[in-house]
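User: Hi! I have a protein structure encoded as tokens and I'd like to know what sequence might fold into it. I'm fairly new to this, so please keep things simple.
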């Protein structure tokens, strides 16, 4: 099972976490925690859905400053936190340029990078950086502590909603006592929601770009293995990472669970 998509005209990967069930059979409360890709293409109708149906109050933009400046979120009257996880532009995470030609050049560069698995290896490096980079620790710590103080629904996103926002979701679910199978399945859910978009792009750019497009827009369990190995190597355990880098102790965890979890009942 993975989180349920919120159907919007301007996004591919906006999902509410409220359908997920943790180790103790508790559900995340309705319409409070939302993961997404970027909001630069949302319509007025999309904005009304997020505000009126989901009571959206704050957005956490995990992209770097350049990405946010080029494609700012199109949503008003909500609090926006700009929390760049990775402070420098990195090919494979930030798509330089804003038009079809620039993106075609980007795909070609990724496809030709080093070797057939060059893009895959690069993405593994990205997952290392979201753990060890100082900017990442600052961003995720602020994100989690603001979630605990929030009033209303919170949405977090990066560009495609899969890597930087994916790790943010892993942190949230881990603190809320979800088992690793559920956490991994939700992470891999991006591949399900992005399949129509990738199919369209393969048709446009050519089948020779299939692997490259999936490296750019998809996720792999292998990336998570890198992530967890880096955490274990540097901190000894996930809980030590949370405590040392993000200041998440047992008291925080209990308050977080009290705020976001409930026993599911028929409504």
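Assistant: Happy to help. Inverse folding works backwards from shape to sequence: for each of the 267 positions I chose a residue that suits the local structure. Here it is:
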């Amino acid at each position: 099972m993975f989180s349920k998509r919120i159907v919007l005209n301007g996004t591919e990967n906006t999902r509410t976490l409220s359908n997920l069930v943790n180790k103790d059979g508790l559900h995340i409360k309705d319409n409070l925690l939302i993961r997404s890709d970027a909001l630069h293409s949302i319509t007025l109708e999309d904005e009304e859905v997020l505000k009126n149906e989901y009571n959206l109050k704050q957005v956490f933009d995990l992209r770097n400053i350049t990405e946010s400046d080029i494609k700012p979120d199109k949503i008003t009257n909500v609090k926006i936190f700009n929390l760049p996880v990775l402070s420098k532009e990195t090919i494979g995470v930030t798509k330089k340029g804003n038009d079809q030609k620039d993106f075609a050049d980007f795909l070609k560069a990724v496809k030709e990078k080093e070797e057939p698995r060059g893009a895959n290896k690069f993405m593994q490096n990205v997952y290392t950086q979201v753990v060890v980079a100082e900017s990442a620790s600052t961003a995720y710590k602020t994100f989690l502590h603001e979630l605990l103080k929030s009033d209303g629904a919170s949405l977090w996103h990066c560009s495609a909603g899969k890597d930087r926002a994916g790790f943010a979701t892993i942190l949230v679910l881990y603190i809320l006592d979800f088992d690793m199978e559920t956490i991994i399945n939700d992470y891999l859910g991006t591949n399900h929601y992005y399949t129509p978009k990738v199919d369209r792009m393969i048709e446009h750019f050519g089948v020779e770009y299939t692997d490259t497009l999936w490296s750019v827009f998809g996720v792999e369990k292998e990336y998570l293995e890198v992530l967890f190995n880096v955490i274990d190597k540097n901190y000894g355990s996930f809980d030590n990472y949370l405590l040392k880098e993000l200041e998440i102790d047992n008291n925080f965890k209990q308050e977080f669970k009290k705020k976001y979890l409930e026993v599911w009942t028929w409504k």
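A useful reference point when you look it over: Confidence is low (pLDDT under 50) at residues 91-99. Feel free to ask if any position seems puzzling.
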